[in-house]
Amino acid sequence: MSEKRTTLKYDGIIGKTGEHLEDDILIHERKEMDLENGMLVIGFPTIGLVGPIAAHHLMSTMKLTHIGSVYSKYFQPTAVIHNYVPTPPVNIFAGEEKCGPEGTCDQIIVVESEFLPPPNLLKPLGNALMEWSEKKKITLTTVLEGMLKPVADDKLDIFGVGSTEHARSILKKYDLPQLEAGMVSGISGVMLYEGERLNKDVICLLAETHVDYPDARAAAEILNALNHLLPQMKIDPEPLLEKAEEIEERIKESIKRATPQESKKPDMPFPIYR
């Protein structure tokens, strides 16, 4: 039996009635799922591609279900294939698992992006995700982010930023160093200041990372920090650590062999999954 659809046209986007439509953003829920009292984890590509590497590992190892996608006419015209199915570059996965500090959340939801949205879309996209999480009664949002490492050594530090006193108390409880002063940009920055404005708990975990290639070690370190917020599950970052050197060497070799024109930094991060 075919699904009955009522369509609504909004500035070039067609979606089902009741879906989130704001500033050319459409969040389409493919599968109805109760996400109340859930924990949302967001991974968008920035420095070192730490966010999407960690989010992908989290989604695949926990065998989360693909429950939705995010659409926009301003997104890169690229389809991402998940289990043979073409999807837009930003997707939502979820599973009924105990998570959050001391198992206080009932579901985990992961938003994974394999491309960096254009700057003019970051604010409306962050607002849309915040509004969607409010609508779904999600209680905690954690954004995974990379930050430029100031000193060239092998140690990778993790820092946290909390939008509320409660979020900062969670970081303090698990002895996660907090960023006293600095700047967090992109989706992470939007989620943080909107969380502060709306008194919503948002935590940003920042991993020091390399800037020129995907940093699997930094992604593993941020997963170790995330383990504090997932006490019932314990994510194993070892598979990432085992592949870290292989991933980095392959990419370094590709950069080395590239012509000057080819090695010019692209506007969008290159695909990291096949």
Describe the protein:
The structure is a single chain. The chain has 274 residues and is an alpha+beta fold. The chain has one domain (22-257): Rossmann fold (3-Layer(aba) Sandwich). The chain has six helices and 13 strands. It has helices at 50-61, 119-135, 165-173, 186-198, 216-226, 238-257; strands at residues 7-10, 13-16, 20-22, 25-29, 38-43, 65-71, 80-82, 85-87, 90-95, 107-113, 140-148, 158-162, 202-209. The strands form three sheets. The chain has a nine-stranded mixed sheet with strand order 3-4-6-9-10-5-11-13-12, with helices on both faces. It has a two-stranded antiparallel sheet with strand order 1-2. A two-stranded antiparallel ribbon has the order 7-8. A hairpin with a 2-residue loop joins strand 3 and strand 4. Helix 5 (216-226) runs antiparallel to helix 6. The protein is globular.
